[in-house]
Write the structure tokens for this entry.
Amino acid sequence: MHHSRDRFAAGRGYLAACTLGLPVDVTRDAVRRDLERWSAGEATAADYSSALERARGHAATLLGTSAGRIATGSQVSVFAGLAAASAPAGAEVLCVDGDFSSVVAPFLARGDLRVRHVPLDTLADEITPSTWLVSYSLVQSATGEVADAASVTEAARAAGALILLDTTQATGWMPTTDLDADLVVCHAYKWLGAPRGAAFAAVSDRAVDEFVAHTAGWYSGDDPWASCYGPGLHLARGARRFEVSPAWHAWAGAEAALGFAASLDMADVRRHDVALANTFRERLGLEASDSAIVTWPDADGSALAALTASGVVASGRAARARVAFHLWNDEDDVEFAVDALGLTARSAR
């Protein structure tokens, strides 16, 4: 993946794809062109809609589905909120203990659902016939752990439960084309390097039938330009019914970002990213993993402070230091981070 490094203006010491990705050259150029066209009064709603449709196709490629099953939006929590608002009163929702709030909070906010939080490694075993929906992230934000999605899906289907799967920390560094879930949600501003405000979801037939389009607006119809006004309700027959009006400027960049990602061999990207992450883990005395995200205990923040002081861009979550390796990184970034940590690197356990 070394050829990809030249496509990014920055990257040395940037180990924060899990927090905020970097734009590839075509994304940066697309955002600049959009600003110029907007400034010159040349931007049009029709052009933005065309860009969104192309982005929808790229999103479908990344999730292994058809464009007709993709709903576009702005945030993961909005899609999760639609699932939460559609749940029957008293329904059981199964979540992972410590998962990202966007796939947990909407269900807690209802106040009348039975939300259970279980460890990631027991998620499949905790699914019962009384479980209405399983809501979890494919890759955990706080720890970088990768879920056994196949086992969760098998258990959920056997129990008749719906599945909400967040791939925000996965799509872009690993293949996400073989997931069986009713709502696969992703925000594109991390590993996909899109501007923030561009999210998408793959929606199953069951979700279309059972979820209510509470956020319905002018963009929720089959032809948005024909559903701008009431008094009638204009709902698309499929996934588009769950769309909200797009943040146009974000999608101008997202079209390019998703197109670039869709052109990559994600198996190759995963090998590159995980190899760097495991080299770093070895230097820290940690066991190898299958994740591009590396975290370790850092309750006092000293490791993160050392990384930051040396110019490494990293993050801290849940009393742990967190780094991530992606397309713009190479072995020199591993050494950069190890040198920054000093003795901390030899006592990460």
Observations:
- The longest strand covers residues 131-137.
- The beta strands are 70-73, 92-96, 114-118, 131-137, 162-166, 183-187, 199-203, 293-297, 315-317, 320-324.
